# Entry
Amino acid sequence: MNDVIILGAGIVGIATGIHLLRRGRSVTLVDKGEPGRETSFGNAGIIQREGVRPHAFPRDLHTLLQVGLHLSTAARYEPLALPKLAPPLLRYWWESSPEHYRKVVIQYAPLIGRSIVTHDDLIKASGPDAEKLISRYGWHLAFRSPDKLEAEARKAQADHEQFGISYEVLDWARLKAAEPDLIGNLAGAIHWQDPWTVRDPGALVTEYFRLFERLGGTFVRGAASGLVPDGNGWSAMVNGESIRSKQAVIALGPWAPDVLEPLGYRLPLFVKRGYHMHYKAPEGVDLKHLLLDPEVGYAMAPMARGIRITTGAEFAMRDAAPTPIQLSKAEAKARELFPLGERVDAQPWKGARPCTPDMMPIISKAPKHEGLYVGVGHAHHGFTLGPATGELLAQMMTGEETAIDVRPFRMARFSGG
# Structure
């Protein structure tokens, strides 16, 4: 019998395994696919230290009308999915009220504060192949209109004063100096200086997985057909064989409900789907740093495979067929700012971000069972927070004092938990 079985080999599951192995636990990691090839793979590649404010549900009429009439690039919805999505989305809207949101930010900020610290730890332990994937420049939040840039600068100053986030405001001339091949005469940008960016997020997760294996972790590829209490521990059937352990972790991202619901946990999880595509750059043209265009709703980042465009949020059922409408809109708008070449990928990549209505992940012991722990619901910050989540789960599971207060992330805050 192993000490721990972890279901889900994304960045959360791998990081949890590393931190447990360091504490002398034996760990088996289980996933139906290759490690780090789902949601951990298809993001913009930001370790988002500045992201103390999770994505709130829009409450202004203009934005709601844009989304409702399918005019928005940043967000769209699938009408047939609305009956099932309505309850968590209504709670999401409620939790995004100014009063509620202020509390969320205060509770969320310490977790974001662990992002660089815990990634830095794993990068150094993984070695030079991980280190060469990292840029410590930060990234550009670029604006087309001066009034939007000014408003964001005021918010950035407030975050600097309250949370110590470093930034500078770049006018068009300074932004153009940092990115000579930009076109379009933007108003300028906020240069967030604390975050790190990654030129291949999937490759970094692969390096973390190699560290997991070097530390003695075991990986089993196969779909676990449920997880059930087994005496004083847990067991899961994988490829027709039973894997038994003293403790278990569910780190399955958007697939977590498939295992949690048979155990009696009906959580209000929903997904925000997203897409990405890579593009060639013309000869002699270079995008040096990640740029996010918030007035449209996409990110454009230099990656090992080409220039990656990632889309905003699509509210749809997890397993519904792809509808990469946002990607086409984002591509057209991105060409106004940068001379993109032809597409590199045969098809857009699609992933699903697991979300909770209160914008806070679940990093917790399961309240109804001994030895069961859950790390899901990171929404837009899963890549950022994977190592921090793994650290906290390992600390809880081994009886250590946690690096930050984990009570805001307890599973029991939801009635179905």
